[in-house]
Model the fold of this input.
Amino acid sequence: MGSITANPFQDIPEARTEPIFLLVYTRQMKGKHMYFPVYWRIVSTQTLGASGGCHAGAVLLRDHYEPWKRSGKPEIFIPDDTWCKFPILTSSVVPCSDQLPVNHPFLFKSAGIKPTIIPYFNHKTNSFDFEAFTATLRELPAQSVILIQSNAQNPTGSDPSPQQWRELATIFSQRGHLAFFDAAYPGFASGDIDTDLQGVRFERVGLLSVLTANEDTAKKLEVQMKLLARAESGAPPDFGSKIVETVLSDEALKAQWREEVRDMANRLKQRRLRLREGLEKLETPGNWNHITEQNGMFSYIGLSVEQVTLLRDEYHVYLQDSSRISIAGLNNFNIDYVARSISAVVKATTK
Done:
């Protein structure tokens, strides 16, 4: 079992080994109880944001992941509902076509890696399809690479439960799979960064990081990551990393930051609850529990393309055709109108 993680706090080109930055950030991702020998086995580099982290990780795997080098066929398995991708309603593994919308699939394809989608979201229950996902993981070839978002999954808002994360970690270990984590929203789901990073910590990773078998391998990989960072971005500014160092190295600032993340997550939960209660108060047909069961800034609310189009044309409420809504875009001035509009559309299209 292995893993690699891309995270948004990444801005400098060279593999960063200074004790202050790497230790505070690795402990942030791995947890305060990370034992010291692991620190020397983690190799990290900073990139231009989370997208840069994903691309750098993709290139690193393409050039150095031994199973891919042996087969000559680099392939990554991506959930069927992922970052800025319209849903493909399927229960099986399907190759990504050239017409597939951007971001995760396009990012890996641009690095010369074949993206293949696997089931993740159940559109009938509007929730994470744990059974289909785990069944697929067990059927994939050993040592496959699977992309997973750590929490507040974009666009569905549906994450594995703590127990499901444990079971996923077991399957990854048994099959020798490599987990490629996109950890863009720690703290956005539960309000607690440690809780949201449980899935990542089961895999022992941090930053855009690779956990190696020993320190000697880590030193060799560090050389390759420095070369990769130079090719990826040249010399981007390190201002962002200085902010991270400053905040995570100061207990008072770190506590303030965690509290602010918790407040933000709680506001998102309150908006979800208010939208759900508004729809239920209006006696909108259907079950709307999934709105509060999902997490983070986005939600699949379960509307059809016809309903989304009507909502857009008649009420000027804009959702993606997949019915993804931005919970962060709701506020005290528009949330009641959004609820009334959704209710009217659902009632008008329900037979």
Notes: Residues 8-22, 85-92, 95-101, 202-206 have pLDDT under 50 and may be disordered. The CA atoms of residues 159 and 189 lie 9 Å apart. The first strand starts at residue 2 and ends at 6.
